[in-house]
Amino acid sequence: MSDAIRPLIVGAGPAGIRAAQTLVNAGIRPVVIDEAPSSGGQIYRQRLVPDERSAKDLYGSEAAKAIALHGTFARICDRIDYLPETLVWNLRDKAVDVVTGQRTRRIAFSHLILATGATDRVLPFPGWTLPGVFTLGGSQIALKSQGCAIGEKVVFLGSGPLLYLVAWQYMKAGADVAAVLDTAPFSAKFHLLRGLFAQPSVVLRGFRFAAELMARGVAVHFGVQPVRIDGTTRVEGISWRERGKEHRLACDAVGYGFSLRSETQLADLAGCRNIFDARDRAWRPERDSAGRTSVSGVYIAGDGAGIAGADAAELAGERAGLALLDDAGLPVDHARIGVLERKLASIQKFRNVLESAFPFPESWVTSIADDVTLCRCEEIAVGDARAAVRDQGVSELNRLKALTRVGMGRCQGRMCASAAVEVLASACGRSPDAVGRLRAQPPIKPIPLAVAAEGEAA
Amino acid sequence: MALLKRLSRHELPLVPFTLNGEACSGRAGDTVLTAILTQADRLRLSDFSGNPRAGFCQMGACQDCWVLTSSGARIRACSTALETGMDLQTITEPRS
Q1: What is the CATH topology of the domain spanning A364-435?
Q2: Looking at the complex, does the CB of residue A233 fall below 8 Å from at least one CB of chain B?
Q3: Does the CB of A439 have a partner CB in chain B at under 8 Å?
Q4: What is the dihedral of CA A134, A179, A65, A77, to 10 degrees?
Q5: Which tens digits make up the pLDDT trace of A90-99?
Q6: For residues A217 and A256, what is the distance between their CA atoms, to the nearest angstrom?
Q7: Tens of pLDDT along A346-372?
Q8: Confidence category of residue B83, pLDDT binned at 50, 70, 90
Q9: Which CATH architecture describes the domain B14-89?
Q10: Does A145 touch chain B (CB under 8 A)?
């Protein structure tokens, strides 16, 4: 039976690794494909070469989880077919097209587990394309993987748990954190008290980050409305509005983000049905509590299946692996399935609390001026999108893309689609779920031209 | 002037490379993005307006950090490891 099973896992972060481990334990040898040179995903990303820093320095309170996950991967590595530094750029007919360096090939699969993770959800505002502005995730990678701060004097801005985590990590590493600018009002944080019962350690850790930042003299501002990042060729400062008054602070770097957005392109190419997740204000693949999508044999786990964080990703990866085994007629531990589903349900409930404590800045869309760049690849302004609605009657996202090129550039909408949805919905008087979602197109990321030509000829 | 500030990894071996014709060095384990932005404040000019860019997401998603090699190849700086002798150029010509 298991000879006929040739599962493919995309992504070697917490979800992908736990899924692979689950299959390996059942005697199955999956293919694991990952873009990074080593496993761990973004949250447990490993350095390219070892340095003087310990796991505790790199991963803080999550060091034990990082060590355990990396250890698991090292133990299963010779029982999987691991393809690092490999991009899945297309998916069709139960096979993926991948590229490693300049080399492309096609790999068939019997089952597919997508563990493609997430990136920061960003919203444009004046100055967001200046050198020295990075996402919160990017700021964290600079520190963890590269041992660098994004500047001499750094301001962190936005919403979401990552805001305080990254600011705290920078402070601990000896960087100069000039301020933390939280777009949510202070009162929103009281929602976290509701989460104390469900996930006490997570909530208390968050409070500790904020308290230690303040104790070390880092200014934390709430209810911030970003006005602009100042500078002509690089960041020179940041201006924001707070309780009706404008403030300005000199800095040479800004790290920002508003929670995360799922990477769903491969699920789209696989033909998975999507549903609108009102909490994440985004479309995501429809799935059951085990991670089964609407397409038989295709499973999804981790932040790519809807934002839930690293702990949930480990649980969901294992759960999806067990679902695959079960569907293939292999024995599974039903008691373990019960434990996983209960833990995942508890984290999902807690996510509602987090969303209340770190809400999406709904006022952004009405405050953003027409001349601000919406799409940083194609350099299309917010006003161009609004004009398409006004002058051409656009009310659907793919139509907006066709007419204005928003979302058509190299990033394929990864950086602009969340904002484009808000601008489009607001301009045409619809809700975000009523303007559609960007359809994924292969190649889902840029690949060398020679590779694309070879793919066409095949 | 540098954009990124090194806080650790000061003792790792030097990796010599060339940036816009000038001899530079990074550290073992650097990405191309880190190696360039610890001595310069941009990676390229944007395709249309020609405004300076220096990467954004650092995880291979935003595609804002492409630089040129002397052979004319484009590489994504955040996901490419620095190698000895790399001959790199920040992109200075807008596409249009």
Answers
A1: Arc Repressor Mutant, subunit A (1.10.10)
A2: yes
A3: no
A4: 20
A5: 999 999 999 9
A6: 20
A7: 999 999 999 999 999 999 999 999 999
A8: very high
A9: Roll (3.10)
A10: yes
